[in-house]
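Case study.
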Amino acid sequence: MQSLLLASALIGLGLYGALTRRDLIAVLASIEVMLGGAQLLLAAYAAVTAAPSIAQGVNLVVLAVGASEAAIGLALVVVLVRRGRRRTEDIEEVRG
Amino acid sequence: MSGLVEWKMGLLAGAPWVAVLVPLVLAAVIAAGVRFWGRAAAPVALIGPLTLVGVGAASLQGGGHGAFEWISAGASVIRLGWNADGLAAVMLLVVGVVAACVMLFSIGYMHGERGYVRYFAILSLFTAAMALLVIASDLVGLFLGWELVGACSFLLIGFWYEKPSAAEAARKAFMVTRVGDSAMLVGMALLWSSTGTLELSKILPAAAGLPHAVVAGVAICLLAGAVGKSAQFPLHIWLPDAMEGPTPVSALIHAATMVAAGVFLVARTWPIFEAAPEARTIALALGTITALGAATIALPQTDIKKVLAYSTISQLGFMFAALGVGAWSVALFHLVTHAAFKALLFLASGSVIHGSGTQDLREMGGLRARMPITAVTWIVGGLALAGIPPTAGFFSKDEVVAQVLHAAPWAGVALMLASLLTAAYMARATRLAFFGQARAGKHGHESPWTMTVPLVVLAALALTLGFAGAGVAGVLGAEAEPLQIPLAALAVGIAVVGGVAGWLFAEDGGQREAGLKGASASVWNAARTGYGYDDLIGRAVVRPMALLARVTDAMADRAGVDGVAEGVGAVARKLGSALSDIQNGDGQWYAALIAAGVVVLLAAVVWVAR
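After joint prediction, the assembly is written out as follows.
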């Protein structure tokens, strides 16, 4: 129960940060916090379910995917920051 | 050789719709190549009327008939049929001969016009429409042709559409005939509802058996259509204005063929009128009023074409009077001869206008010496119109007057008075145009052969057609009336008196009429303006209608229909601009909306699974 509350808190805080922070690196960090919350949720689920191995396996896959995602996301942010676009307002490609 | 001719005649008689198809295809072909044809349009277009003449000649002894299904809705079937009987054959010949003459004449008259090819395309279409009108074996096909000739008339009156008066005249002709056409449509609907068909071969035998009120209603409605098309009082006002069109058009459409379609319609549906004496009485009254009234208006006109226009209205009045007393074959005979001599007069006036450069009788004078062929043919036409033997007009008009006098003496006397005036205005116009001193310095010259040949052909017809009376009656299946010598002598005497009076009156080239004073001047001017009838219609009908149209425009159209349409648009636009603020290109804002959506969906799921 506590882990559920903690996971919800992590996801909520991460979402708040991802939506409100204007610094790209902070946004990326917030997204990682959300991912952490989600993984905590999976781990908590593994602790109560009758077939924990599946949940644990999925968690390991998410861990790997999350690592790759962080690497790619960070690489993109580094490229953007090097070009002087370190804030979310600078990304205008989706503006109509 | 004769075998081949026979075979060809048989083909033409067996398939009268060829007379519609050929000019129709020609019209399309000419219209498709407006830039391409140039001067070649005229000889190509001439094939159309010649086909009509061929079909008409081949069908004189009875031609083919048939039909194909056009519209089928449940048990109701509308067929488009053709029946080249004697009546249709006579009309085909009239239309074909006059149209051929007019097209030949137009080569010279319309030379160098900007719309030369367009002109011949519309003439071809008109020929096709007129052929459809006369060979149709049901009222649907007839009405189709009826409206198409009206449309062609509109296009040709407004041929010089840059000229405001021509455009106005075209609109006026279209609107005024529309009044009669609407009534005709009502009559057709009445017929459909009471007999369930519009095929003449079924309606006409059944006409006598219908309830009297229905037959009378149908007959009056059809008569109203005929009155509009044939420019009879009270719907005659469009024809004088129609003179804005090129003169050969006036000869073909507004003298010989289309305006005579009203007479043809009544003759075609004669059994309905046979069963409706009220409609016949109306036809007699309107015809007599028109014949006499229009003759008085023709007398003081100064425009040579206006003289002929009112003369046409007057002569059509003679035909309607003949229809009114039941002598439809006599009316048809007068239609045939009138087509020849009135087309001749119009074409001759066209030649005069072409040669002298003016339409005003007061500016002409002495043209006889410069335009001998035109002068002689005009005089032949004038004699025929006045009814001097042995011209065609003498025979046909004499029969009309005799028949009307026999059945309704007062109307007969009125027609005799109209004959007197006819001779007078023709003599006056002839003397003003062709005799005396040349009043303006304009150099008249004779027209080229393309214009004089049709004149000579029509003059020959105007001289000889009178002897074809028995033949025409035979083709129509009616008895020819023998000439009543005393009455004929009286009619000729009247014509001579009128002619001499008109001749003497025009002695000094129009000085006398210009110098009229007091009461006679006011009568003269009243007649010249058509007794102000046009103004009366303008005040009593056109202005209230225009007012109604403006009110409807403001209230119903702009406030109502436009309001709804624009309101819908405005709501969509406002909503769109409000919603477009959401799409601001900010990725985090989109993500926030997505998160909000997820929260709402989750809340909904929780709420439902509660």
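Observations recorded in class. Chain B has a mean pLDDT of 85. Chain B touches chain A through ten residues (CB under 8 Å). We will return to this complex in the next lecture.
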